Amino acid sequence: xxxxxxxxxxxxxxxxxxxxxxxxxxxxxxxxxxxxxxxxxxxxxxxxxxxxxxxxxxxxxxxxxxxxxxxxxxxxxxxxxxxxxxxxxxxxxxxxxxxxxxxxxxxxxxxxxxxxxxxxxxxxxxxxxxxxxxxxxxxxxxxxxxxxxxxxxxxxxxxxxxxxxxxxxxxxxxxxxxxxxxxxxxxxxxxxxxx
Length: 195
Prior knowledge:
This protein has helices spanning about 1-30, 35-40, 45-50, 55-75, 90-105, 105-115, 120-135, 145-165, 175-190, and strands at about 85, 135.
């Protein structure tokens, strides 16, 4: 019983420090955040911080990994039984990404403001998921390479996510997927865009 309480307390402290870092990055920028700021905002002690993290960079890395792992979990969940993705299901895939980012807006915005290389890491995580967990089947013009279609869709979606973030998440996740579908669908079906 004592160990469980201790473990819960450690998890609570870790989560409090992660939340403090996110809040502080949004308030003052990553470079201005100090260890003192983190422990004061988290309501912990510097020794507690040092038990968990070497420095704020390690804490940032944990927050980034937690965010990316959460996204990975959301992306993998629908493919537990089937590893097949039809081209017309890319919208559902994109919707999961938009919803996850919307639900985790403060974390996403803080990571964008920090030196976490989030854009590239997001692309890599989503791309890795696509290439290792699903096969793209029908629903796209035959002359379009599956890998290029997935890469194009991910890059377009991430561009929209960045603009959506810049605009303060004014549109819904569903509206953003509609925009993505229009952009990708228009580009793929436009004869002027084909050789």
